[in-house]
């Protein structure tokens, strides 16, 4: 009896340690999203919109304890992307060609609080792409349909051509995709004015940082000499 007690106590202590050093909620939620996207949700055409649902709980609120904190919005985008990647076949297509993808930039505009215990949806869709990047738009909507926040994300593809990836996904629609909504005409999306300015802003920032890195590197070389 004592041995069982000590075993259970040790197991509880181990779980407690794991809980504090690993973000279990994040990984469990990611696993749930992955299972739902692969086995329980309809596959989507690459230019269609995907939707996931969530609720603002006590773990999500800020110090005022009444609405979602700013950092949680970005965290929720991970689950929206995971759902989108799996249901549209984007990740599978990129990985099959030996490529990878990661987030290169994100901008979120907050319009109205998502209050505690409020249900919301995140709608995700592609708004543009070039030879290196795919641009996603995420909208946080509450029950009334109001857009509480909107985010733009630049997904950087490496070791593959984003134009070719999109061409493959547009021309070779999987049989499991029943409804094709946004992509009926299968044409490349036009670059919107706000996205064009955002891309330009990111390029200016990149050039500025490269100049700073170059200057620092020259200083280090000079110091060694």
From TrEMBL:
Keywords noted in UniProt: Membrane, Transmembrane, Transmembrane helix
Region (Disordered): 205-225
Compositionally biased residues, Basic and acidic residues: 207-219
Keyword Membrane: yes
One Pfam family hit: 4HBT_2
PANTHER family: PROTEIN THEM6 (PTHR12475:SF11), PTHR12475
Name of this protein: Protein THEM6
Organism of this sequence: Hypothenemus hampei (Coffee berry borer)
């Amino acid at each position: 009896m004592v041995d069982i007690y000590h075993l259970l106590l040790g197991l509880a202590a181990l779980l407690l340690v794991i809980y504090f050093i690993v973000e279990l909620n994040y990984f469990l939620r990611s696993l749930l999203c992955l299972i739902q996207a692969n086995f329980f949700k309809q596959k989507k055409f690459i230019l269609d919109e995907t939707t996931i649902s969530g609720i603002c709980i006590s773990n999500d609120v800020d110090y005022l304890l009444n609405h979602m904190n700013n950092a949680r919005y970005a965290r929720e985008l991970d689950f929206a992307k995971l759902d989108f990647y799996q249901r549209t076949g984007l990740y599978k297509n990129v990985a099959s060609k030996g490529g990878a993808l990661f987030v290169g930039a994100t901008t979120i505009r907050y319009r109205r609080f998502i209050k505690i215990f409020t249900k919301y949806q995140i709608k995700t869709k592609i708004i543009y792409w070039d030879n290196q990047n795919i641009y996603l738009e995420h909208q946080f909507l509450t029950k009334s349909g109001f857009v509480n926040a909107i985010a733009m994300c630049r997904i950087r593809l490496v070791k593959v051509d984003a134009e070719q990836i999109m061409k493959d996904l547009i021309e070779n629609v999987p049989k499991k995709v029943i409804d094709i909504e946004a992509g009926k005409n299968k044409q490349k999306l036009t670059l919107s004015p706000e996205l064009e300015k955002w891309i330009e802003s990111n390029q200016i920032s990149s050039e500025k940082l490269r100049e700073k890195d170059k200057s620092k590197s020259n200083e280090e070389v000079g110091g060694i000499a």
